[in-house]
Amino acid sequence: MNTVRDHLILLVFALLLFIPFLGSVHLFDWDEINFAESAREMLLTGEWWRVTINFEPFWEKPPLFFWLQALSMRLFGVTEFAARLPNALCGIATLKVLYEIGRQWHGKRFAWLWVFLYAGSFLPHLYFKSAIIDPWFNLFIFLAVYTIFYISEHAKKNQIKLGFIGGLLIGLAILTKGPVGLLILGLTFMVWLVHTHFKSVPSLKVIGVFGATALVVSSVWFGFETIQNGPWFITEFVEYQINLFLNPVAGHQQPFFYHFVVVLLGCFPLSALALPAFSNRFNGDSFKLSMWMKYLFWVVLILFSLVTTKIVHYSSMAYLPLSYLATLAVIQSLEKNRIKNWVRLWILAQGAVIAFALILTPILLSNMNLLTDRITDPFVLGNLASAVEPVGWEWIIGTMYFGVCLSSYFLLKTDPYRGLLILSIGTALTIFSTMISIVPLIESVSQRSAITFFENHADEESYKATYGYKSYAPYFYGKVTPETALKLPISKNSKLDKPAYVSVMIKRNDRFLEEFPSAEKLSEKGGYVFYRLPPTLP
Predict the structure, then answer these.
(1) Could you tell me if 251 and 271 lie in one domain?
(2) Same domain, yes or no, for 385 and 466?
(3) Chain centroid offset of residue 317 CA
(4) What pLDDT is attached to residue 516?
(5) Cα–Cα distance for residue pair 135/121, rounded to 1 Å
(6) pLDDT in tens, 185-196
């Protein structure tokens, strides 16, 4: 009964943390709008087996996450809330998984601490309020790795059943984001095999069941698509994945250490608490789960550091194993009733930087002259000019967060468990407050004016396009249909049988007018100039 009660408490906690205000801000370009638009097009066309963007084949991702979004949109309408709801539900599922694994191996104290640390860290928490693919992808891989760990290290019975479950999970991961899920699992397993000198390899029957199940599950789409439309779509998909690994996508060429910095700074305070787990003095656990979590963590970081295209989401798979190592390091420190002084100092220093940023952002947006006097870029100046005036109290969020970090600094020395709870819950509440007060301010100076333009003309039978920059906002917020989808970027050679509404980056305005001298200027806001182009065909 106590376990049932704990799960109910956890469910309510997660619901309150992830569901409220989920649709309070527009989808952020790039990936959020891209994925939501693919789901919207599924509903509009009824074509659930082929992923499209702008009603053309989109071979970059498999369809499972888009199916979840489309189902959510069918229930709740085509909204930001519906686009993000699948990941909020993933957040609930993830916390319950962490609790159950933690309780099984370490007891309830560890389980609750693991939940609070994960929910109370910045990037792990924020991903559950997004509309990107990675949270579900990461959960499937994490559970698949855990299943293989259990088969390899502990299971004496039901290995065939566990092999089937592991294959099912990795099959779902492949349907979510592609074969890279199998690559991560395979590399982690190979590292374990090398480390153990190939002494306890699972039976061929178990490996066969695992592989056959993964193949069957992933073939639900890969196989069906090939049978229906031939191999070209799958070929394009595979070539795109290889290209991501070998060549940098424009704007995503970063230094080798990029993902190390993202994890270290973005996963605060989880990352700071995990640092002792990577020292030579760290003992790990007696049942080798910590060993597998280290394998998984390093495989992800090294693999995506070697990949030429570096996008912040790629290393998010490292958050789950990192969270286990952090919790284990904390529990071992709690047994000694102290957190290392340098860890406390790290938490205070990094927490102070984050708090300062949260204080400074709304203050700067309230005093635009402090920014505009030092900026010459017309696009940036236009965006800043469109900022929504802060209410005036937003800076309190950062001030209170500094108080949380300062209190934790002292409590981690005298009452570590209480200090950790205050730090985790305080961070979670800070993220929650930031999402409903400060993030809308940031969105107002980045994309809102362009999105509002397309929303205002969404119900008109017209084309929608951008000029001088690329965005999926015209598709999703302009409610583009197969009849109003421009198959090529708009240019002077475009033949229009209906009017087109175009958002032009202000830096490209002169060039646009040279191409379209008949364009009717409608307005200018937020670094964009908005035009109506008349039809060019009778």
Answers:
(1) yes
(2) no
(3) 10
(4) 94
(5) 15
(6) 999 999 999 998
- Looking at the fold, whether 107 and 127 belong to one and the same domain comes out as yes
pLDDT grade for 29, boundaries at 50, 70 and 90: confident
Strands 56-57 and 52-53, sheet pairing = antiparallel
pTM metric for this prediction: 0.94
**Domain match, 170 and 260 both:** no
Asked whether residue 35 carries a pLDDT value surpassing 90, the answer given is yes
What would the pLDDT profile of 327-353 be if each residue is shown by its tens digit? 999 999 888 878 889 999 999 999 999
Please check whether residue 483 is in contact with residue 474, taking contact to mean a CB–CB distance below 8 angstroms. no
Q: What are 243's two structure tokens?
A: 């290209």
What's the full length of the chain, in residues?
A: 538
355/435 same-domain check: yes
Is the Cβ–Cβ distance between 349 and 341 less than 8 Å? no
Structural domains in the chain (count)? 5
> Do 506 and 513 meet the contact criterion of CB atoms below 8 Å apart?
no
CA distance 214 to 174: 8
Q: Is the residue at 518 inside a domain? A: yes
What mean pLDDT comes out for the span 122-146?
Answer: 96
**493 and 529 belong to one structural domain:** yes
| Pairing assessment for the beta strands 520-525 and 528-533 based on DSSP bridges | antiparallel
**pLDDT tens per residue across span 360-400:** 988 887 776 666 666 666 766 666 666 666 667 889 999 99
What is the Cα–Cα distance from 227 to 456, expressed in whole angstroms? 42
Which range marks the domain in which residue 528 is found? 461-533
Element (H, E) at 465: strand 463-467
Last residue in a domain, options 293, 316, 336: 336
Residues 122 and 138 in one domain: no
From the number of C-beta atoms within 10 Å of its C-beta (0-12, 13-18, 19+), residue 112 rates as: buried
